[in-house]
TrEMBL record:
Keywords (A to Z) from UniProt: Hydrolase, Metal-binding
SUPFAM superfamilies (UniProt xref): Arginase/deacetylase (SSF52768)
Gene Ontology BP, a term: putrescine biosynthetic process from arginine, via agmatine
Keyword Metal-binding attached: yes
Protein's name in the database: SPEB protein
Family: Belongs to the arginase family. Agmatinase subfamily.
Domain of life from the UniProt record: Eukaryota
GO molecular function: agmatinase activity; metal ion binding
GN (gene name): Agmat
Origin species: Nyctibius bracteatus
Length: 194
């Protein structure tokens, strides 16, 4: 619940216990902005703040489904400069993400990983109830492939953010979000699903 700002203090606590962690981040946006309206902490900046504080193991950060307009001709430069793997949504269209998640599992290894899922990573046809929808996003099936593809990782925490009930007229976004959270619980270490 909440906007993506909540991930920043969560990662402060997680890193205090585990040290810098890997990150599987599903989103339409990289959330690595510096400021907005003069503020350094808002839903578009959490991962820049996390980098600055050494909370992330930057060579083990993957951002999946990234898209949308930008004021910058190279909007992913900051992320790549930090060592993040950015997977633009165009690389996800019309295909299974099972092979990608095999690569992600190798990248993450057995060290601690945090999973952060912004509902706007999904196409607004499936999840319209969010404050910053971007067209041409991931499908629910791809979301399941990503989450289920995290099974076996050393997941030390996870979140699902940016569901906005006031924009969720049908309730479909909340339903999808709840199901994705259930799936996240199922891939936590030690959970038996068969």
């Amino acid at each position: 619940g909440g906007d993506h700002t909540i991930t920043y203090p969560i990662l402060q606590a997680v890193a205090a216990k585990h040290g810098p962690v890997g990150l599987v981040h599903v989103d339409a946006h990289t959330d690595t902005g510096d400021t907005a309206l003069g503020e350094r902490i808002y839903h578009g900046t959490p991962f820049r703040r996390c980098v600055e504080e050494g909370l992330l193991d930057c060579g083990r950060v993957v951002q999946i489904g990234i898209r949308g307009s930008s004021y910058d001709p190279d909007p992913y430069k900051y992320c790549r400069d930090q060592g993040f793997r950015v997977v633009p949504v165009e690389e996800c269209w019309r295909k299974s993400l099972v092979p990608l998640m095999g690569e992600v599992r190798k990248q993450m290894g057995d060290k601690p990983v945090y999973v952060s899922f912004d509902i706007d990573g999904l196409d607004p046809a499936y999840a319209p109830g969010t404050g910053t929808p971007e067209i041409a996003g991931l499908t629910p099936a791809q979301a399941l492939e990503i989450i289920r593809g995290c099974k076996g990782l050393n997941i030390v925490g996870c979140d699902l953010v940016e569901v906005a009930p006031m924009y969720d007229v049908s309730g479909n976004t909340a339903l999808l979000g709840a199901n994705l959270l259930f799936e996240m619980l199922c891939v936590l270490p030690g959970v038996k699903t068969t």
